[in-house]
Amino acid sequence: MIASEPATKRDHSRLLVLDRQKRSLEHKYFYDLLEYFKPGDLLVLNNTKVIPANLVGEKADGGAKIEVLLVKMLRAKVWQCLVKPGKRLKVGSEVSFGDGELIGTVLEKLESGEQILQFEAKGSFWEIVHKIGETPLPPYIKNPKLQAPNSKQISNFKSQLSKRYQTVYAQKEGASAAPTAGLHFTDELLEKIKVLGIDVAYVTLHTGLATFLPVRSEDIHDHKMHTEYYEIPAETVEAVKKAKRVIAVGTTSVRALESYPIKGSAGETDLFIYPGFGFKVVDAVITNFHWPRSTLIMLVSAFAGKDFIMQAYQEAIRQEYRFFSFGDAMLIL
User: Fold this and answer.
1) What pLDDT shows up at residue 240?
2) Domain count across the chain
3) Does the global pTM surpass 0.90?
4) What span, in angstroms and rounded, lies between the C-alpha atoms of 325 and 333?
5) What is the span of the domain harbouring residue 264?
6) Which of 182, 158, 175, 146 is nearest to 13 (CA)?
7) Residue 45, in any domain of the structure
8) Closest by CA position to 282, among listed 311, 260, 298
9) How confident is the model at residue 210 (pLDDT cuts 50, 70, 90)?
């Protein structure tokens, strides 16, 4: 059921509409979204931008291949990273990227498995990252086109996927994974939404480990969320206050909006939403289909009820919906 590539057109993915009051399910397409909007609604989008966070380098001592995923910038030049194979590096080890254009030094190895690296660049850090880095596409995407005999064909297909793994409204660089519910929107669809008189506002939450790490604890209360940076502009705060109904696009937008009353309009959030959570801001959610044991499926279960979500997922399986990042979407009213 996992989508190995996106729909031909962004807004031509399927849409399963869940009505929490009626306990009903409807099968639509994403471009039918307009049918469910009303005057006074506010659509909130996460404008984070995926960076080319996958870096492949060599260990300075020995030349072993090292893969690094930039997860979160802690301060200037210092990043929290996933490293593969992590065991090859010790504190003080150096990794060279792009023929020495970028050097990463291990400052710390965390118990959770990530490593803290400090980078020194021959020039602009961001320019070099954009030159040598790759978009971190989800590892579960297994497409025959990625095994093409021609390396140029593989490169072209990866380039196409990378473009589609970015929302059309992405603005603020910092994410290591896309806020995938937003991938279905086109500029034309957003324009039609605005013409209907529906307000559109933005938050930023840089998607990272907190979003895609599974819950391994048997008791979900023992799960520790990683922090992710978020900000809510003053105009979005005002728009939320005036809105009759707040429709959040993606679990990241939900977490940012629901963090606001607790943690303010900017900062780090480790908000973990699971059944029993009391929603204070969000009235409707647009989301994709998520992994089992993920914090994301727990969030939508908190919003719609676990039994109703499980019923919806079983219906999606029967109707052969496509799952995960490039898959189909749900609208939960």
Assistant:
1) 96
2) 2
3) yes
4) 21
5) 10-50+163-332
6) 182
7) yes
8) 260
9) low
Looking at residue 107, which CATH number applies to its domain?
A: 2.40.10.240
Closest CA to 228 of 271, 260, 170, 258: 271
pLDDT band per the 50, 70, 90 thresholds, residue 141: confident
Single out the residue of 96, 135, 142, 86 nearest to residue 119, CA to CA. 96
Torsion-angle region of 174 (φ positive above 0: left; ψ -120 to 50: alpha; else: beta): left
Q: Describe the strand order of the beta sheet including 24-29 as a list of residue ranges.
A: 24-29, 14-19, 329-332, 284-288, 245-249, 41-46, 199-205, 228-231, 266-269
* Chain center to CA of 285: 15
Burial of 139 (0-12, 13-18, 19+ CB in 10 A): exposed
β-pairing, 48-50 vs 172-175, is parallel
Structure tokens at 132: 């040598």
Do 173 and 315 lie in a common domain? yes
Whether the bond between 85 and the residue before it is cis, its omega within 30 degrees of 0, is yes
Torsions phi, psi for 265 (to 5 deg): -95, 0
Which residue type, as a one-letter code, is found at position 293? R
